[in-house]
Design goal:
The chain has one domain. The protein contains three helices and no strands. About 55% of the residues lie in helices and about 0% in strands. The chain is globular and about 35 Å long. Helix 1 runs parallel beside helix 3 and helix 2 packs antiparallel against helix 3.
Length: about 80
């Protein structure tokens, strides 16, 4: 007997993936974080590089978005560490 869950019928696309990435590390209190936003993005990138099946998600767009988000976090982190922000 096959069982389909409600979540299995939801179509996940590139915009959904980017929205998820955009929110990484943004919704938890600092005391509950499992890492900085940069660490979370870098971990997500490692997982994305190993991912084989992308279905309706454009891998190239997601990877570009991730790389840009990581670069931005590195830039912001450096500026914050110097007190420029």
């Amino acid at each position: 007997m096959s069982r389909t869950t409600k979540s299995a019928s939801i179509k996940w696309d590139t915009q959904d993936e980017i929205a998820y990435i955009r929110g990484l590390g943004m919704h938890r209190s600092p005391s509950r974080r499992s890492g900085t936003r940069l660490e979370l993005l870098e971990g997500y990138l490692r997982g994305a590089q190993a991912k084989k099946e992308w279905a309706d998600v454009d891998r190239n767009l997601v990877m570009m978005y991730l790389e840009n988000a990581i670069a931005e976090e590195r830039k912001n982190g450096t500026a914050q560490a110097r007190g420029a922000v």
